[in-house]
């Protein structure tokens, strides 16, 4: 709760929170004890190797960190872990590195379990004192690598009978170091100096030393800050653990020193925190520094406010009741809207500390509770975000403290208010820490329906914001005490929130909550929302329009369940005269005021589109109303103006407009069921088909999706015209129209599914024999779109849309008229999907694989004419297909390469594998090449299969000559194949045709090329081809000699290097008599410059 913000270092609620997935796993015990025992036992062996040492430390950290939230599970195992590590440390055979390693592991354990509990297990024998002290004295206080050793030794030493002066000297030296040993040294000093035998002789001296150190140090330097930190820590610890009678005489001197040194004005938050901590300890000694503590509540740093709040709690506990009540009154002064969020946060922390200690009298609750309720919703906008999450978190801490400090009868008058406020915070707060703090502040024994709420909105469940707004809220609102407060909070605080995500979730939550209080929504909430929808504040206007739309649709659903019109449900006197005209008025004000233009338009356009959609779905009686023309104008204007909208919200606006168009057509352009308004049908279809030829790519996108969203009665009689326009849009391969091709491919499937399938139907109304081939040709053509621009492989968007569309159209056709699918269409579709399933981009490979398997396993009815269906089912069995992770190359490629055995799929699979094996991504290259070579090893003894594969390989190369997208990866893949001796069978034949054709294609590929990447890949292939016998070897050598004389120095150097390695591998290539001369020329010649070989050529 309040502690959360302190730990995270956040002082506001401005940042967005990550979306958190709720987890409910709780550890049941220390299950890794065997592994930990083995790790500790292996330290004498692994510490000599840096790699194994770091691996052991990392594993130990990972295991221990799992128990940060449940450290008590380690308790039964702490003793044997400590004994094993101390045995290593005490051993005379242990080198210093192993000793430091032992202390490092001890520190990790103490960090997880806490040093107070862990140190109780350390041995306290007198025999250990001298070795521990000697080892500590031998440490270098400034060695950053061994601070864990010093830290643990200091903590160990504080548990023993001291050797007074030596311990004090060592402790003082460690109070000035920069690492965590300084904290341990302050603990040591506090326990050591307050001992009865030490305080008589050394307390005064140590305080003099500390005050002198504070007076002489400066917080303007790093060293001075460290010294001040150590001295202030030690004093704070001394006044915490010492007796009041012992320190009373020194308190005025210490307070005077703090005032003279101006610690409270330091620029270092840590020093100010320690100053406040010391002042509160002094306040427990004499009750004078109250004003300083109250001022600390408003400090800009959380750690200072937290320390001041605890100090006020401790000091107030020593005061009489009357004076304590005055302190409470002073704390309440922090809760003013003239104060900053820091003051509110500090005030909440102080109230929680006072309440936790029982210092807040019940008579003060009427004054305190309203302030806490305000703090639970405190959210001050600052620029583009807001602050206040720490205030709300601290307010939850106050509620938690009150529930434990007061009797239920004392809290009874305020229980409902507090319960509603906490539930609202737990469900609707934007900050996850606040939601979790509120969820654990609910108390099943005090609050109404507490047990049910705690179960539904537990710590883990409220971690997911969508789950809170859309699911948990509905459950809690079913309890009548919480229904209206939750609705009122959403209307008052959330539909006008600065974060658009919160506004949208709030409106959806209002939709879901409407069945819980329909009359309240219709008679109270709607009259509040409609004026706000016409207001001047952008966020309020946006949220109110969305909320009006969602509540209207929810009311329609309720009315429809009872076979009543929605106007009857909301026709009470308070809204009937206003509500029916308000949607029109909203639209007119938005358009006339130009609120749909500029930055505000990016919010208002989707909001009004949502209003149009929900009004249409709610069957509002607006037929023949002029507002319908206005609504249609706004939708059309939005689809035409997409290029004027910034990229972020563009897709959302486009989707909102398309959804609104579909709902508007369904409700208002259908005079009779199944019949379209002829005029509107002609206008809309012609308009959107014309938009497919626009010079603006986004207008094309909007027009395509608009055509795809039209209802069936709007398509009837216009199908041929629509499909022709979409097919033409898909076929234009200009780079700038990639998004248009993608959306046209999506729309084509939507149109086909909407129109339906009939084998004997007309091609202008349904998908039939006359148009199904054209649809498939267009979509299969989209599968070959590999357009590249500055954004990368943008053609992948088109291919992904085409794959989805092929699946949807195929399943639709198969379900009604499977005879329309010819073997050629199915073969082309499955081969194209196989190729995409073998390509390099994980996302699109996964999509293609899932579509491929979906079509293969479809059996209601089955897709006809799938080539090699039985073999495919053996490769992708039904029971194992769902578990196959196509995104993971290690899982996908072993399955894909099995398609190389099937003749129909071999060419396309190999084409897809080419760009994966010859690609750049390490994991993709590794697993794809390994799977490919595993297949090649299996067919080495099958001459027919190897011959068929080699023909397919040459076919791929021949079809993609000068196509750098394929040819360069192909050369890289070919180099790997030759290096792995995949074609050893051909090396025994003189001038094998495969080798001759391959050499010819390689020469053609690099002819006149200036692409160094391609040339270097070709060099590697030529060096691999040298293994073949006959004239082909001479031709390969000739090509390499030409490349040795290439104009580019990098090509000459690469050729010389690889030829040198090749000659070492194949010693029969050159006559042994001249081998030494050749090798010397290759190695000694400076290939970066023009040389005699180049000149002679």
Question: Could you please describe the fold and organization of this structure?
Answer:
- 68% of the residues lie in helices and 1% in strands.
- A hairpin with a 2-residue loop joins strand 1 (380-382) and strand 2.
- The radius of gyration is 39 Å and the shape is flat.
- The longest helix has 24 residues, at 538-561.
- The chain contains 59 helices and four strands.
- It has 1097 residues and is mainly α.
- Helix 35 runs parallel beside helix 37 and helix 55 runs antiparallel to helix 56 (1031-1044).
Biggest sheet: strands, sense, closure?
2 strands, antiparallel
What is the residue-mean pLDDT, rounded to a whole number? 86
Helix share of residues? Answer: 55-70%
Oligomer: single chain
Q: What is the molecular shape?
A: flat
**Percentage beta strand:** under 5%
Tally of DSSP helical segments: 59
Protein structure class = mainly alpha
Primary descriptors:
single chain, 1097 residues, mainly alpha, two-stranded antiparallel sheet, two-stranded antiparallel ribbon, 59 helices, 4 strands, 68% helix, flat, disordered N terminus, ARM-type_fold, beta-tubulin binding, chaperone, Tubulin-specific chaperone D
């Amino acid at each position: 709760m309040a502690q959360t913000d302190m730990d995270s270092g956040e002082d506001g609620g401005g940042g967005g929170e990550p979306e958190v997935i709720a987890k409910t796993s709780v550890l049941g015990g220390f299950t890794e004890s065997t592994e930990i025992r083995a790790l500790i036992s292996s330290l004498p062996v692994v510490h000599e190797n840096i790699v194994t040492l770091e691996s052991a430390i990392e594993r130990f950290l990972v295991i221990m960190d799992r128990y940060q939230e449940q450290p008590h599970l380690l308790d039964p195992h702490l003793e044997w872990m400590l004994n094993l590590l101390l045995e290593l440390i005490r051993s005379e055979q242990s080198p210093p590195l192993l000793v430091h390693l032992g202390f490092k592991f001890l520190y990790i354990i103490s960090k997880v379990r806490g040093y107070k509990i862990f140190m109780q297990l350390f041995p306290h024998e007198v025999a250990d004192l001298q070795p521990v002290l000697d080892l500590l004295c031998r440490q270098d206080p400034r060695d950053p690598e061994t601070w864990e050793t010093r830290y643990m030794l200091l903590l160990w030493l504080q548990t023993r009978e001291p050797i007074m002066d030596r311990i004090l000297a060592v402790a003082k030296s460690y109070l000035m170091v920069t690492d965590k040993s300084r904290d341990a040294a302050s603990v040591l000093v506090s326990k050591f100096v307050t001992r009865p035998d030490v305080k008589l002789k050394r307390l005064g001296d140590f305080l003099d030393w500390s005050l002198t150190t504070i007076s002489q140090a400066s917080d303007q330097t790093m060293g001075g800050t460290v010294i001040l930190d150590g001295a202030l820590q030690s004093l704070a610890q001394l006044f915490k653990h010492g007796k009041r009678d012992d320190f009373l005489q020194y308190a005025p001197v210490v307070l005077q020193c703090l005032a003279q040194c101006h610690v409270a004005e330091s620029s270092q938050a840590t020093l100010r925190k320690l100053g406040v901590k010391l002042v509160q300890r002094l306040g427990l000694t004499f009750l004078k520094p109250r004003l300083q503590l109250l001022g600390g509540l408003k400090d800009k740093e959380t750690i200072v406010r937290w320390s001041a709040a605890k100090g006020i709690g401790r000091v107030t506990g020593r005061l009489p009741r009357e004076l304590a009540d005055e302190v409470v009154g002073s704390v309440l002064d922090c809760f003013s809207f003239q104060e900053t969020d820091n003051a509110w946060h500090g005030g909440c922390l102080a109230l929680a500390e006072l309440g936790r200690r029982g210092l807040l009298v019940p008579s003060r609750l009427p004054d305190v509770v309203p302030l806490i309720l305000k703090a639970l919703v405190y959210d001050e906008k600052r620029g583009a975000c807001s602050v206040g999450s720490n205030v709300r978190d601290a307010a939850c801490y106050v509620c938690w403290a009150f529930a434990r400090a007061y009797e239920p009868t004392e809290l009874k008058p305020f229980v409902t208010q507090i319960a509603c406020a906490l539930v609202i915070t737990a469900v609707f707060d934007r900050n996850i820490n606040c939601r979790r703090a509120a969820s654990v502040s609910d108390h099943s024994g005090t609050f109404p329906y507490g047990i049910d709420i705690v179960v539904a909105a537990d710590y883990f469940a409220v971690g997911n914001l969508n789950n809170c707004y859309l699911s948990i809220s509905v459950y809690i609102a079913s309890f009548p005490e919480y229904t209206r407060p939750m609705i009122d909070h959403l209307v008052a605080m959330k539909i006008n929130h600065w974060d658009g995500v919160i506004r949208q979730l709030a409106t959806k939550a209002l939709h879901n909550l409407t069945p819980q209080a329909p009359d309240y929504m219709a008679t109270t909430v709607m009259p509040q929302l409609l004026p706000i929808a016409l207001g001047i504040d952008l966020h309020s206007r946006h949220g109110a329009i969305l909320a009006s739309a969602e509540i209207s649709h929810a009311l329609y659903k309720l009315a429809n369940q009872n076979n009543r019109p929605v106007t009857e449900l909301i026709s009470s006197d308070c809204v009937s005269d206003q509500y029916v005209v308000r949607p029109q008025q909203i639209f007119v004000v938005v358009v006339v005021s130009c609120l749909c233009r500029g930055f505000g338009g990016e919010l208002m356009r989707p909001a009004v589109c949502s209003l149009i959609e929900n009004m249409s779905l709610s069957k509002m009686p607006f037929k023949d109303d002029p507002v319908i023309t206005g609504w249609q104008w706004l939708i059309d204007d939005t689809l035409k103006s997409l290029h004027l909208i910034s990229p972020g919200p563009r897709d959302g606006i486009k989707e909102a407009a398309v959804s609104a168009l579909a709902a508007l057509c369904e409700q208002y352009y259908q005079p009779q069921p199944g019949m379209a308004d002829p005029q509107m049908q002609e206008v809309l279809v012609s308009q959107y088909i014309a938009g497919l030829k626009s010079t603006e790519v986004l207008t094309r996108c909007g027009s395509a999706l608009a055509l795809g969203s039209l209802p069936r009665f709007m398509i009837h009689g216009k199908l041929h015209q629509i499909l022709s326009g979409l097919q033409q849009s898909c076929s234009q391969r200009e780079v700038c129209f990639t998004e248009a091709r993608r959306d046209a491919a999506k729309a084509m499937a939507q149109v086909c599914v909407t129109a339906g399938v009939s084998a004997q139907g007309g091609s202008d109304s349904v998908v039939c024999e006359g148009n199904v081939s054209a649809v498939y040709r267009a979509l299969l053509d989209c599968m070959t779109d590999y357009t590249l621009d500055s954004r990368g492989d943008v053609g992948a968007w088109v291919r992904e849309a085409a794959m989805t569309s092929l699946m949807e159209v195929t399943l639709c056709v198969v379900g009604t008229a499977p005879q329309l699918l010819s073997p050629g269409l199915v073969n082309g579709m499955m081969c194209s999907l196989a190729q995409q399933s073998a390509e390099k981009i994980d996302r699109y490979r996964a999509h293609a694989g899932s579509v491929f398997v979906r079509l293969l396993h479809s059996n209601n009815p089955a897709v006809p004419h799938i080539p090699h269906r039985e073999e495919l089912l053996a490769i992708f069995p039904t029971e194992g297909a769902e578990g196959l992770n196509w995104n993971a190359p290690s899982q996908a490629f072993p399955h894909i390469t099995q398609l190389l055995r099937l003749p129909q799929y071999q060419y396309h699979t190999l084409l897809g594998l080419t760009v994966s094996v010859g690609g750049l991504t390490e994991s993709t290259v590794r697993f794809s090449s390994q799977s490919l070579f595993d297949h090649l090893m299996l067919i080495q003894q099958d001459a027919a299969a190897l011959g068929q594969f080699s023909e397919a390989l040459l076919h791929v190369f021949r079809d993609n000559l000068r196509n750098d997208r394929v040819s360069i990866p192909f050369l890289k893949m070919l180099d790997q194949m030759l290096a792995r001796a995949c074609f050893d069978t051909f090396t025994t034949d003189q001038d094998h045709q495969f080798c001759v054709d391959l050499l010819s294609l390689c020469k053609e590929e690099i002819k006149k090329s200036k692409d160094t990447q391609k040339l270097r890949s070709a060099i590697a292939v030529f060096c691999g081809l040298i293994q073949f016998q006959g004239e082909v070897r001479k031709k390969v050598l000739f090509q390499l000699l030409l490349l040795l004389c290439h104009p580019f120095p990098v090509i000459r150097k690469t050729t010389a290097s690889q030829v040198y390695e090749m000659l070492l591998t194949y010693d029969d290539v050159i006559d042994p008599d001249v081998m030494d001369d050749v090798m010397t020329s290759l190695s000694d010649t400076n290939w970066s410059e023009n040389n005699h070989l180049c000149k002679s050529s």
